[in-house]
Amino acid sequence: MAVPAPELTTTLDEPMGVYVHWPFCRSKCPYCDFNSHVSDTVDHDRWRTALVRELETQAARVGRRRVESVFFGGGTPSLMEPETVAAVLDTVRSSFRIANDLEVTLEANPTSVEAGRLDGFRDAGVNRVSLGVQALDDEVLRFLGRTHAASEALAAVAAARERFDRVSFDLIYARPGQSPQSWKRELSEALKHAAGHLSLYQLTIEPTTPFHSLHARGAFRLPDEDTAATLWDVTQETLDAAGLSAYEVSNHARPGDECRHNVVYWTYRDYLGVGPGAHGRLSEAGGKTATRTHRAPSIWLDRVERDGHALVDDQMLDPDEVLVEATLTGLRLASGLSRERWHALFDRPPEDLFDIRTIGLLTDGGFLELDEVGLRATATGRARLDAVTDRLLRSRQPFR
Ligand SMILES: C[S@@+](CC[C@H](N)C(=O)[O-])C[C@H]1O[C@@H](n2cnc3c(N)ncnc32)[C@H](O)[C@@H]1O
Ligand code: SF4
Hints:
By secondary structure, the protein is of the alpha/beta class. It has a domain at 16-265: Aldolase class I (TIM Barrel). The chain is built from 17 helices and 17 strands. α1 (44-62) runs parallel beside α2 (82-95) and α2 runs parallel beside α4 (118-124). It is globular and about 60 Å long. The mean pLDDT is 95. Iron/sulfur cluster (SF4) binds next to loops.
């Protein structure tokens, strides 16, 4: 059955997010494939001017829409000068209608140097900090190529909590040799220091990283599938018991403390992407546009200075691509996508977008739930989300 192509006009008035990418790090971690670069010489005045300029160019395109979140990601945004953060936020305030409770997150590395800059970021307008703690064991931190010790990271968490109401930190698990017992102990320790939000990522081996070649050479082994599944279960049980259940595959929060910016991505709402390699998604008359800027910092800088932006991709997605993206992101959320959301995006319910027998198989199997609220993956489904979304997406109905 083919379904009529939707008109995306209903999403134009929704509040949106702004993502700002800072591409520099003090050193490169061997597992990381983010767009991050080590550079001894960063001309902060040039970067401040260019980030503001690209934001102004993109803002002019979307008009005075309502913005509810800004996210400084990286790389290591805690290496930005607070004046740069302030200049970007001034531009956000003058270019858009701002939600009263605008969420402004900055990712920070948990070193003592960066903890010393937190006052400056708070004064610039940041109100939420996300720290890359990664592990609470010094030997593991060395293996991960981190330059901080566990005690230093916990001191940075404490310093952040003194200055910000909303603090999160990241841990990486399913590491070589990690037992469920030791992970449970580490999580319990983490919870003693946590505020209302934790991001818990399973270690993935990304192509082109030093970990990829080390792993291929047999320098270390990841936990086998059964151990990885037990580590996942331990994570869910421990965090559920502490009141920070998963609201997304890797993200846990007390109710109300979810990262609103990331929820913008996962509910497939609009966001601008500013800075090298940043992606954006914009509802424009006729559909959803995907944007991406040049990844290389020096080329991005030159292009912005020349043209006012460094977009290398700027194309309208067809409805089928929108369906794939919205499904992949929406089912990451524990709450899934509501019926209103499917309607806003596609003008029809999920029953009309996928083969109803496939939905039936996945709901009968306990992987999906579909009811009057919407479509979502169950906890069992989220533990093997790639397989579930793959099965569902293979059954999608063509648009005509
Ligand atoms: C942009 S980085 C965080 C900011 C900061 N640069 C830092 O490292 O503290 C985002 C997060 O992604 C996670 N991450 C990156 N690469 C990963 C990988 N290969 N496997 C699992 N988690 C990864 C890390 O927890 C990291 O904190
Ligand atoms: S994990 Fe963070 S500090 Fe390490 S290279 Fe990636 S972005 Fe930079």
